[in-house]
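User: Hey, my collaborator sent me this sequence without any context and asked if I could get a structure. I don't really work with proteins. Can you help?
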Amino acid sequence: MKARVHVMLKNGVLDPQGEAVRHALGAMGFDKVNGVRQGKVIDLTLAEGSSEADVTDMCEKLLANTVIESYSIEIL
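Assistant: No problem. I've predicted the 3D structure and written it out in structure-token form, which is a compact way to encode the shape of the chain:
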């Protein structure tokens, strides 16, 4: 089984890395970008018998800081 986890900062949480990207894009002439939120994508290859609940448990315990980040899971 393969799963893809998308992790993003929650709305309202300052994203300095995203702001740095927005600023750099503006400096390169891409001045129509009003905001950037940067996240991460984690691809997992799991053993047979794994479930979406297992991936959720991984997200809650390690892959996402649920205080400031949200996540979504895709089963591929």
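In plain terms: The chain has one domain: 2-75. You can pass these tokens on to your collaborator as they are.
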